[in-house]
Amino acid sequence: MWRQPKAVWAVAFASVVAFMGIGLVDPILKPIADNLDATPSQVSLLFTSYMAVMGVAMLITGVVASRIGPKRTLLLGLLIIIVGAGLSGLSDTVMGIVGWRALWGLGNALFIATALATIVSSARGSVAQAIILYEAALGLGIAVGPLVGGVLGSISWRGPFFGVSALMALALVVTVFLLPTTPRPERATTLGDPFRALKHRGLLGVGITALLYNFGFFTLLAFTPFPLDMNAHQIGLIFFGWGLALAFTSVVVAPRLQHRFGTIRVLIVNLLFFTATLVVMAVGTDSKAVLATCVVVAGLFIGVNNTLITETVMKAAPVERGVASAAYSFMRFGGAAVAPWLAGVLGERISVHLPFWVGAGAVLLAAVVLFATRKHLTGVDAPETQTDELEDEATAVTVGN
Description:
Blueprint: H1 6-24, H2 29-35, H3 40-68, H4 70-90, H5 94-122, H6 127-155, H7 159-178, H8 193-197, H9 201-223, H10 225-228, H11 232-261, H12 263-283, H13 288-315, H14 321-349, H15 354-373, H16 386-400
């Protein structure tokens, strides 16, 4: 699995940096609120604008990539992220940061969807192995992001924004030189393709599951720093542990559980464990020790879920992988967009415990939806056909040389 073309490693490195951008901001949410006299719900809009634009933009990633090619799409996404992150760091108001985070989300959409499709099509081996490699990059980026954000954030809340911009500039250079020009698909993708893909009940069910699961995921990510009430460095260390747990289970544990028990069964049980973790956080919100421990424990379940649900998406419908990824990402980032803002409002106006109860309810419902959809996903554990493997190898040779 680890012997891959240079194109795969170039995109994987850039993916690490891209995913650092998610966790990098987490430790500075409270410092931004304190320095700019903002409420938790206002600061949570940094996640909402970012995720909302990213979700909608996922619908156009295939259209863009099929017309200008994957490499140019990746570079365009990286360039937009550099600009959005840098201008966020220069802003003096919360709404200014929210606006530039929206631009940042557009860049991330162009990059992430294309990166996943590029790694899956370029990597040697099976789709499952390619996704594990992608999730390894995701896990590493998410793990390191909060730590770097905490270090830079302890100097200034602007530091992580400038850090992302600088790291993305490095990723841009690496992608330019290590990723060869990639051919455009034979058929140009249309805006309607992702919606047509969602007519497949399996893909639609997985999309709804991901939307609800991400509601709980981003409630934890965006709201927990406020009841923790710690400095940027301390929060960065806690979420660094969360990221390490996520990276470990996504790469090491998820494939073993999948092989032994089957994808859908593992996903459903895993979602129930994540629900239980959010319930403990809801009950023990007043205890910093409980919250910190549960954040790290949640990383174990999130890592398993991320790997297996991504692989399920790639096999849930007989459509092009880029189209399936765009349709799925559009739905999952919908939950990610609403959750941070709603959690902030509920925590401010009603109870600091309530956001975690709502997040737990959403993840529990995700498990119910996936259980109800399981009959449409019976083929997700079937091995790749010889034709599929030959197509992947042919693509890897074309892109990797």
